[in-house]
Amino acid sequence: MREIKQEAKKRTFLGLLLAVLLFFMVAAVYLLLFARDPLAPFSRSVMLVVTATILFCAVLFLCGLLLAILSIMQNRTFQRLGWLTGKTLFLLYPLVVHSGRLLHIAQEKIQHSFIAVNNRLVATRPQKTAAKDVLLLLPHCLQNDSCDYKITRDPANCRRCGKCQVPDLLDLARHKEVALEIVSGGTLARQAIAKHRPRAIVAVACERDLSSGILDSFPLPVYGVVNERPQGPCTNTRVDMALLEETLDSILQIRKGESQQNVVF
Ligand code: SF4
Asked: Which residue of 46, 106, 163, 181 could cross-link 192, Cys pair, CB 3.0 to 4.6 Å?
C-alpha cells in the first residue's frame, strides 16, 4: 500500500518534468522552423545557435529523465550516467515548481513528489553505508515547545520526560550506531554535515526544508522522511518511527548477526 502511494507521488514530479522538457523542445523546434525567415541574417544565426542549444539541452535532460524512470522501474543504478539523472532532477527542479504553480498544483505536493523520487533513486544505489558514515538529521520542532532544555547544542540534555519523541530518536540512533544532530535551520544543518562529514544522511523535516536540503547537499545522498504536523507547521511535530527505522535499515551495511530488511520508500 505504501509503495502504491509512493508511485502516485513520484508521478507528479516526473510528469511535470516531462511536460517542461516537451514545452522547451516544441518551442525550440517551432523557432527553428518558423520564426527565422523575418529576421536579418545575423539575428537569424544567433537565433539558430540559441534554439539549437536549447534543443540539445532538452534532449540531454530528456535522456536524464528516462534514465531516472528506468532506475525507478528496474530498481537499479546506471553508474556511469548517474550524474545525468542527478543534474536533470536538480537543475530543472525550480522550473518544475514554477510550472506546477502555473497549473495550480500545490508546491507542497510537488516537493513531496520530488522527495519520493529522490528517495527511490538513492535507494537504488547498490552500495550500503557503514553506520559511522550515516548522519540522522532532525529538526528541533520535534521537541515539545514547552521544554526548557537546549537539545540543539547537545541532544543528551533531554531529560526524557516523555512529552515528545526525542528520547525514542536518541535510542534509535544509539541502537543503529549512527550520529544524530538536532538542528534549528539550514545553517546548523550545514555545520552538522561539516562536523560529521557523512556519506549518507537521513533527514526528517517538512517538504520545503527537505527539498532544499536535498538540493543543497547534492551529490551527497539524502534520504528524506517527511514529518507529521498534527499541530500545524513547526510546532510539536512528530515522525513515523517505524518508517524512520526502515529507512535507516535500508541504507546501513548489515552488521554481524543481523539480517537485511527489504524496504520500499
Ligand atoms: S522528552 Fe526531552 S526534549 Fe522532549 S520535552 Fe521532555 S525533556 Fe524536552
From this structure: 181
